[in-house]
Amino acid sequence: MPSAATENKANVPKKGIFNNTTGFSTLITVTVLSLAWLAGFASRLFAVIRFESIIHEFDPWFNYRSTAYMVQHGFYNFLNWFDERAWYPLGRIVGGTVYPGLMITSGTIHWILHTLNIPIHIRDICVFLAPVFSGLTAIATYLLTSELWSRGAGLFAACFIAIIPGYSSRSVAGSYDNEGIAIFALQFTYYLWLKSIKSGSIFWSICTALSYFYMVSAWGGYVFIINLIPLHVFVLLIMGRFSQRLFVSYSVFYIVGLLLSMQIPFVGFQPIRTSEHMAASGVFALLMAIGALKYLHSLNPKGQWKQLLILGGLVAAVTVFLAVVLLTYMGIIAPWSGRFYSLWDTGYAKIHIPIIASVSEHQPTTWSSFFFDLHVLVCTFPVGLWYCIKNVNDERVFVALYALSAVYFAGVMVRLMLTLTPVVCVLAGIAFSILLDLVLREDETPAPTQESDDKNLYDKAGKLKKRTPEPVGETGLGMNVRSGTLIAFMILLMLFSVHCTWATSNAYSSPSIVLASYGNDGSRKILDDFREAYGWLSQNTAEDARVMSWWDYGYQIAGMGNRTTLVDNNTWNNSHIALVGKAMASNETAAYNIMTMLDVDYVLVIFGGAIGYSGDDINKFIWMVRIAEGEHPKDIHEADYFTERGEYRIDSEASKTMLNSLMYKLSYYRYDSGGSPPGFDRTRGALPGLRGFKLTYLEEAYTTEHWLVRIYRVKKPDEFNRPRLPLAKRTIQTSNVMSKKLAVDIGHMTSKRRKGALKNKPILVKGKKVTKLD
Amino acid sequence: MLPAMAKIQFFAFILLYVASNCISVNVDNISSDVRIKNVDRSIDISSQLVKISSKITFENAGKVPVKQFLLAVEGAAKNNLAFIGARDSNNKDLRLVETTVKGHDNVKFYRVELKEPVNAAASVVITSDAVFSKALLPHPTAITQQEDQLVKYNSNLYFYTPYKVLTQKTTVVLNTKSVESFTKVKPFSQQDGNINYGPYSNIEPFTEKELSLHYKNNSPFLTVTRLERLIEVSHWGNIAIEEIIEIEHSGAKLKGPFSRYDYQQDHHSGPASVRSYKTLLPASASDVYYRDTNGNISTSNMKVKKDSVELDLRPRYPLFGGWRSHYTLGYNVPSYEYLYHSGNEYLLKMRAVDHVFDDMQIDELVTKIILPEGSTNIKINFPFAVTRLPDSLHYTYLDTKGRPVITFKKSNVVENHIQDFQLRYTFPRILMLQEPLLVVGFLYALFLCVIVYVRLDFSIHKPEHLKE
């Protein structure tokens, strides 16, 4: 980061000397951008260096698995892929329920490399995709910011976004998720949109639509674009900034983007059938109406058209709005989906969709995490915003809207901090650039950046008068004030970069499937229990074995264990998840009925009590109960799992229902090691209330070294209550089976069989049995 | 061009192989002149393998010098035979050729070719080593976690031979005192985990009498079900070796649950399970990696010793009966230790299979040798009979026409097969420059394109602000 600042420092005076050559500034730009790329790439490699090149967490495992499938079977087979290994017995149509952009991107890279005979494993491509794309994001941010303000600001913004924790949290090496490439697509689409609105050229509009298409294929967050751009257009219309450029760029972008976005199977007809997309078409209709009115106005500029224009515009707006509302009521357009609705009402998910509320990254953001993810930029970006609003033009309206909406969304959900981060970087870059301009510029030089702005930014002559050349720069600051401010800001930037590295390294670079613990002497111990368990599953269970676990681990079981799961992280079927939750929350007998109904062979639970791992199933258990209660209110009651005083505990004071639940039993079955009193649960800091119990319907199949993952085998009906006897020994049973069948059979068959049964009953067999039992 | 040549070579090789086989399939006769004066046999069944080492004193009772003897393996055991060899009294290996004898179709015969003929009335001492895999059968076939593993061994009480044996003794090494049952044919004695039989005298040729032992054997019963060994030769000083190993605990199956509690509380729990094993790599091995499809297996240790690199490999989970595991082990060795050349002629001398663990048994071994691009005239000598698979091509960094790959297969491999193969090929050394030149050429073309693009104006229409 400091490198960027110094480069920029050099940039301004040098420009004066080499005024005619763009070569020098291009060199600096390229250098800074490649350094930003490098720094961004390097700071995301902590996980690879500390652990290994491995896919992280949960969702990336699914993405990796489907990418590997695509690479192996080809693109069309991937689109038609019906995954019978997930959501047993329902299965999942993967091709139609994913955003394939991520897989296509890494698949294409893999294909290119292999055509050039570079044999890189697809896993390594997946691992390093997000860090590589962070560099592209930096470049896209640079382009966006230079469109908005100046190239200097662009360089700042590029350097900021390269290392900022708010973005690196989602793009460290191994975090192979949609967001990794989607932020690039987002920034690039916005850049192209500004470009097209500035030039009014169809070329740039088409580019915007193509980039938007890429974004649609990559991430569900494309809805943000398709609402923000219409909002921009709408606000411009209200501000009376209608122009042919706006008309051309939006109508081209909307139509082409709409058609392209509908090519993604998962999106399908949503862009014309759901409320989320209606703003775009509404604004399109409005723009058309106003365009028509303007045209009429141009036919006779002298008439009383002004009032008509405003009135006509208002009428059009109201008509469009009413049409949308009407269509929604008629059921042609789907209303807001629950997930979307929860953005407006933060309490909505908690009441109606517990499955969304159960995910920690869907919680509202705390203030500290704003600072943690953005550091000093969270304080400086309002400055940039203020300048943008002060020197407003078409594209700065856009960035203001972008900033305001992103701030709102980031406040609603921790996860959406990701959409705020780019705009914060852009605006903070502008703020820092203004500051440096102010501090570093010699008094006598007549604003050289402004000149280059005019040259580079393709601004049309009509707009020039609106931009006031910074009046503050000329106030003449004292030397001491200048250097003082400069040093203070350099220190801030330095602290920023230190914080970014620290946050990325400590908070966001854990693969979470490999845990590391540190001993008293600083030695590192790796806890590899997850892979131990998944490795065991993949090698030592039947190929078609079905594993029941909470949905968090579905993708990992499928990806690493290669076994069929009942539920996974693609939480599309709430009732199926509730059924699994119900099995976990019921007592053993009731759970066994559910498990036989679902053909479960193995049950997998995560138990952190032995090592003090807090993200285990007992701590998540209350969500299982809540989700199960949502679907089965008669059988499961959340209150039963709390003590009378409303506490959630597992020790001897815990409620009976809790102690008898399957989850409790599977977690603590024969757990007697752990802390100082044997059987002490380190995570909850308590001694389990029920110990030494036996399991009737399940048996321990495998438990990992640190007890983190416990796998149980569901017994077949003939295995409990009585010991299984080989067929040869089953003398009495055979006749029992016979008589059962006989009861159903018809008369004459009965007599026949009875004869045979008598024949086959010599006393000799009994004698054999006795000897063998000895 | 190259594949065609390789094909021709391959066919030529097959023809040669078949021809040599035809010669060896010569029918031998059992010479009545030969008698066996004494056999001192030791049967080691303390590990998962059966290792029989017999010290045989042959006597020429006839009048003409004898140059060869026959070794026989009975029909019941011949499918388990993994290795057989013979040494003379100076510990020099003797040539062994598989052969048949009329009237004994069910018996496997090997002809031992002596270096010097045995004169009449003289005798010669030969040691024969035979290794049998999968001859120890767990009984019972399934045990619980806490139980010891019991195995059964059935064999021949007498040394199986086409000649008359005057006296013979057998020692069975069990390394355990807990023997459930064993064949008792006098004279016999049991001491210190050994059972001694004999001496028995005047046993007729092809006599079979059941020897049956049922005893405790908790040594690791690990079978490598498939081992794929990849040797990639680079002329830049490096040979990369990668082994893809599928392993299975082939002892008594685990019955009932696995309890981590018992396993952790008591270190004697799971006596038949395998927690870890040692793999020995060449002393010069470096950059060792040990991983599976889910990434690095973090439970391993490496010790660099004087004459080898010792890897203490722990599978992700302890292996109980019937449990399987698979992993990839790779390392680099410097090529000067294995690759010799004079001019354009190269000789690669490497192990066809390497150590996986002590007393290993490998069901199927596939070795692939990837030679540098442009190698021709490939000739290979195997230390033992293998099935050679069709050659193929392999493409990797900066390859244009692909590297030749030599593949061969062998089943039922044990430690005695750790022997060198010799591979000769021709490689014009000038081809070493091909890859650097390729990179240079590519960069040159790239820069040229950029220069041309920057210097020339390709636009159809000049933007307005540049027109003035």
What does this structure look like?
The complex is a heterodimer of chains A (774) and B (468). Chain A is mainly alpha-helical and 774 residues long. In chain A, the strands form three sheets. In chain A, strands 6-5-7-9-8 form a five-stranded mixed sheet, sandwiched between helices. In chain A, helix 28 (574-585) packs across helix 30 (617-631). Chain A is globular and about 105 Å long. Chain B is mostly beta strands. Helices cover 11% and strands 50% of the residues of chain B. Chain B contains three helices and 32 strands. Chain B has helices at 2-24, 260-265, 434-455, and strands at residues 27-28, 34-44, 50-60, 66-73, 81-87, 95-101, 108-118, 123-132, 136-138, 142-143, 150-156, 164-173, 179-182, 188-191, 194-203, 210-216, 222-234, 238-249, 253-254, 277-282, 286-292, 295-296, 300-304, 308-313, 324-334, 339-342, 345-351, 361-370, 376-381, 387-394, 403-414, 420-426. In chain B, the strands form seven sheets. An eight-stranded mixed sheet of chain B has the order 22-21-25-18-17-28-31-30. A seven-stranded mixed sheet of chain B has the order 5-8-3-2-12-15-14, with no helix packed on it. In chain B, strands 1-6-7-4 form a four-stranded mixed sheet, with no helix packed on it. Chain B is flat and about 115 Å long. The chains are: A mainly alpha (774), B mainly beta (468). The A-B interface holds A 51-54, 117-119, 455, 458, 514, 526, 528, 531-532, 534-536, 538-540, 560, 670-673, 699-705, 707, 710, 713 and B 256-261, 264-265, 292-299, 316-317, 322-326, 395-399, 465. Chain A: It is a multi-pass membrane protein. Chain A: It comes from Danaus chrysippus (African queen). Chain A: InterPro entries: Oligo_trans_STT3, STT3-PglB_core, STT3_N. Chain A: Belongs to the STT3 family. Chain A: Residues 28-428 form the Oligosaccharyl transferase STT3 N-terminal domain.
